[in-house]
Amino acid sequence: MWRGISYPFRRGVSNLPEVSEDANKVRESISQILRTRRGERLMQPEFGSDLWSLVFENMGEATIALGVYEINRSLSLWEPRIRLTNVTGREVGENQIEFYIEYILQGSVVSQTELFDRSVMP
Fold first, then answer.
1. What's the CA gap between 33 and 100, in Å, rounded?
2. Which of 34-38, 52-56, 94-98 has the highest mean pLDDT?
3. From the DSSP assignment, how many helices (H) and strands (E) are in the chain?
4. Measured in whole angstroms, how far is the alpha carbon of residue 19 from the centre of its chain?
5. Domain residue spans in the chain?
6. What pLDDT digit, counting tens, does each position of 52-82 carry?
7. What is the pTM of this model?
8. CB under 8 Å to 62, separation ≥6 — which residues?
């Protein structure tokens, strides 16, 4: 269904870019959307998310709620191949939040869940 160059960029066979397909491609796209700061792309200044603005915020329910809101906003706007069913966040350890993103791929009935936390942000 979906096919494209992997993210993050990797070399594959014969030094050509590695290719991702289907659910893996969508998973990589979700990561790319959430890791890209809004305003970072000159030709698409609205692309990405504002999750980075929460990195130095105080921990608590308000910060988790802002993160959940931003994930919902960003993915609803930029990833048409999924239908979000649930986004939740929880505090784990000191100064770390994990977000669980549950979605259904377009043309599928199977729900998938992705974990997004600060440790995956470069």
1. 15
2. 34-38
3. 2, 5
4. 19
5. 3-120
6. 888 888 888 998 999 999 999 999 999 999 9
7. 0.80
8. none
User: Helices (DSSP H) in 1-122: which residue ranges?
Assistant: 22-35, 61-78
Percent of the chain surpassing pLDDT 70: 87
Distance CA 107, CA 66 (A): 30
Q: What is the DSSP letter of 77?
A: H
Using an 8 Å Cβ cutoff, are 110 and 83 in contact?
no
Q: What angle do CA 30, 31, 36 make, to 5 degrees?
A: 105
Look-up of token digits 């600060």: 118
CATH no. for 3-120: 3.10.450.40
Token pair, residue 31, equals: 């990561």
90: Cβ contacts below 8 Å, ≥ 6 apart:
64, 97, 98, 100
Output the six-digit token pair for 111: 């729900």
Distance CA 97, CA 92 (A): 6
Neighbouring C-beta atoms of residue 58, cutoff 10 Å: 8
